[in-house]
Design goal:
By secondary structure, the chain is an alpha+beta fold. It has 9 helices and 21 strands. It folds into 3 domains: about 80 residues, Thrombin, subunit H, CATH 2.40.10; about 100 residues, Thrombin, subunit H; about 90 residues, PDZ domain (Pdz3 Domain), CATH 2.30.42.10. The longest helix has 24 residues. The strands form 4 sheets. Strands 5-4-1-2-3-7-6 form a 7-stranded antiparallel sheet. Helix content is about 25%, strand content about 30%.
Length: about 375
């Protein structure tokens, strides 16, 4: 019995020793991972750390969208003062410089054919436009068309194998959604910043004629104008346009033109060479208590007309000062910005039904819009 017990103990000892040797030297034989320490651990762990995206990272969206965002460099020949040759002028004001003016902005490639969306104020008045891609290629660009009313412009470049951004759906954006702003701030090179959608439908800011901005706290600085605002999938939501700032730098309030607006401008300019909008020739005002009292109006909704252009479309249809436009083609009119947008969406030459209140009595009028005149835009930086 004693001899059997000794044999059993020796057998168990040999098995445990063999097991320890196997798990140390050949762990794959029994499906276990080898314990690694020190430098060996760092070397073996490095490949998996590189291949895995950290939790919460926007790496994929940034990489997907950044390739299609370009830098735009503009130059404008110096405008010589007509009195520059006058000796007295030179005496008082000195020699006027003849250096060209330069500008900086960003843009987004939206077509394999080379169409680029940017801001009108980025390229306005430029004599030469250079586009620099994220892969360091550069080329001259030409302006296909501009729309000062929305501050958008379409450029075109001639290069092969162009990266193209995917157009998202800005109508589905909600306050709180995470977004990225991509552009070339201050000329330091392409930069990606993150934030959220802070507000939607911002208007009456005095920036553009037609305003429906996406507001974001993603950092936008000079040079970002015309760049991309994208969602967390890297899809284009808007064109970065302006910031609210007391210092000229970012203060967490930036504005982007929704891609839904940009698509309409892009399609109109590429197809027709210009944007055609409806126009009726009125001077509208929001329905304030003071105006309501002045015109003896009891309506609480709509836009009051304080002036009508003689022989304009509205005048020919019978609209008068003091009328309150309540609906256009059955769509409620809430304020002046909304009225302008609804009228602009009308097709020139096609009658549209306007619901009006005149002396507190409802009235329907058919107005045939004309073509909205091109705006006279003052110079912008």
């Amino acid at each position: 019995m004693k001899r059997l017990w000794l044999l059993f103990s020796q057998t168990i000892t040999v098995i445990l020793a063999a097991y320890f040797v196997v798990i140390t030297l050949k762990p794959q034989w029994i499906g276990r991972a080898a314990p690694v320490t020190g430098a060996v651990a760092l070397i073996e762990a490095a490949p998996s750390q590189v291949s895995n995206t950290p939790a919460g990272s926007f790496r994929a969206a940034a990489q997907r969208a950044s390739a299609a965002v370009v830098s735009i460099n503009t130059s404008k020949a110096a405008r010589r003062n007509p009195n520059a040759n006058d000796p007295w002028f030179r005496f008082f004001f000195g020699e006027q410089g003849s250096e060209p003016q330069t500008g900086l902005g960003s843009g987004v490639i939206v077509s394999p054919s080379g169409y680029i969306l940017t801001n009108n104020h980025v390229v306005e008045g430029a004599d030469e436009i250079e586009v620099v891609l994220n892969d360091s290629r550069s080329t001259r660009a030409k302006i296909i068309g501009t729309d000062p009313d929305t501050d958008l412009a379409i450029l075109k470049i001639e290069l092969d194998k162009l990266p193209v951004i995917v157009l998202g759906n800005s109508d589905n954006a909600q306050v709180g959604d995470q977004v990225l702003a991509i552009g070339n701030p201050f000329g330091v090179g392409q930069t990606v910043t993150s934030g959220i959608v802070s507000a939607l439908g911002r208007n009456q800011l005095g920036i553009n004629t037609f305003e429906n901005f996406i507001q974001t706290d993603a950092a936008i600085n000079p040079g970002n104008s015309g760049g991309a605002l994208v969602d967390t999938n890297g899809n284009l939501l808007g064109i970065n346009t302006a910031i609210y700032s007391r210092s000229g730098g970012n203060m967490g309030i930036g504005f982007a033109i929704p891609v839904s607006t940009a698509k309409l401008v892009l399609e109109g300019i590429v197809k027709d060479g210009q944007i055609t909008r409806g126009w009726i020739g009125v001077e509208p005002n929001d329905l304030s208590p003071e105006l309501a009292e002045t015109f003896d109006v009891k309506a609480r909704q709509g836009v009051i007309i304080t002036g009508v252009l003689q022989n304009g479309p509205a005048a020919q249809a019978g609209i008068r000062p003091g009328d309150v436009i309540v609906k256009i083609t059955n769509q409620p009119v809430t304020d002046v910005a909304n009225l302008l947008a609804l009228v602009a969406s009308l097709k020139p030459g096609v009658p549209a039904r306007f619901s009006v209140e005149r002396k507190n009595q409802p009235l329907d009028l058919d107005v045939t819009p004309g073509v909205r005149p091109r705006p006279r835009v003052a110079g912008r930086r």
